[in-house]
Amino acid sequence: MAQQEDVFKKIVSHCKEYGFVFPSSDIYDGLGAVYDYGQNGVELKNNIKQYWWQSMVLLHQNIVGIDAAIFMHPTTWKASGHVDAFNDPLIDNRDSKKRYRADVLIEEQIAKYDEKIEKEVAKAAKRFGENFDEVMFCSTNPRVLEHKAKRDALHERFAKALNNNDLEELRQIILDEEIVCPISGTRNWTEVRQFNLMFSTEVGSTADGASKIYLRPETAQGIFVNYLNVQKTGRMKLPFGIAQIGKAFRNEIVARQFIFRMREFEQMEMQFFVKPGTELEWFQKWKQTRMAWHQALGFGAENYRFHDHDKLAHYANAATDIEFHMPFGFKEVEGIHSRTNFDLSQHAKYSGKKIEYFDPDTNESYTPYVIETSIGVDRMFLSVMCHSFDEEQLPNGETRTVLHLPAALAPVKLAVFPLTKKDGLPEKAQEIINDLRFHFNCKYEEKDQIGKRYRRMDAIGTPYCVTVDPQTLEDNTVTLRDRDSMEQRRVHISELQGIIEDQVSITSLLKKLL
To answer: What is the pTM of this model?
Structure first.
């Protein structure tokens, strides 16, 4: 685990050093749990968003997009339940004066039992080699069975406490499991209390005339309040979806793990409206569709898993997370929820407006049910960085730091280097960039020897580098270098666009989804 933590620290450091992510207000020593995306980070982030957006609105004729405002009428959040129920269970350690989410402490304890089981399995696999039967081992080994019994008992108790909103029981679990504060190492815990996560502000010019409003804690409600507008103006027939990418804000007390949990973050959400009674079928379909979207990036199926919710929100009848294997364990990057008709019914009740769908096939009106897919852009960004970062040992004994980013997501697609700064080579290199920059993001570099330039491009994940040399001026051929294999080959300048564009376009990813 310590080794994984070291890798994660290196990734955080790499993000700053190479212009991916900076602490916000860095010159003022930063602002807790708020980050800025640098020149390479914003390109990678935009490519992730484009991949998601096009997979929704280009590949589905019945999904359209909107861009709703961050500020919404305050009654929106009363109707959605956020004013009364958008809380985290928090607990303080009296010695370190640090605050934690009680549910996260317990989830981490469950993960420790899982790790113990994994260690026993790994040891046995090493001992028995090819003859190892993992299923048999897990069902008979006393230590594995003991860890599993403790894990399952804790899991059951935890799920029950969450569903009953039993804060005393959550604290008791922390005490019984002898969970210590990571800072102080003590078990001197306070009571567990609920804390509302919404940021509030005021709209209006004077204190007397101002009204309290909230920064949206999610983007979904902007879609729900626009359901009627989109359905009518777009003449949409069920089933149909509305997609949106936008910022959301949560006053996270326990913000950590770099950009994994932030106070200002970005979401990509799609709400899919369906006929009541068909929602669980659509829930299954969207589970598979969304998992395929993630796996098309080529990070390996073993790094993803579904995690069904122990505690369903009061409005949901099914919910699961897609979790990705980060250096700090399997963590949620996307949620898929069957929200029933809760949101539209609540907004109809609080607004006094009739929010229904007239079904021309059955001649009846009803409130549609909703399947939600919600993915954190920042968490997706982090999962891409974590999987791509590599310190690769080369045959000559050197180490190169390389980001094996999916080519379609890479900030820079092609770097063009003149071998020297003279003899017309820089002009020829610029000519190549002038021709190709309309098709993908290109970068010109002439400083330092070629090897160093290659390393810089490897570090930001540039899939292709081209070197212009004296031979280029004779026959219009260049050296094309591949980031991952480091292989170099001679190609004609006229071939570059075809070779590279085929690999680096978002279209190349989208085709894997069909």
So the answer is: 0.83
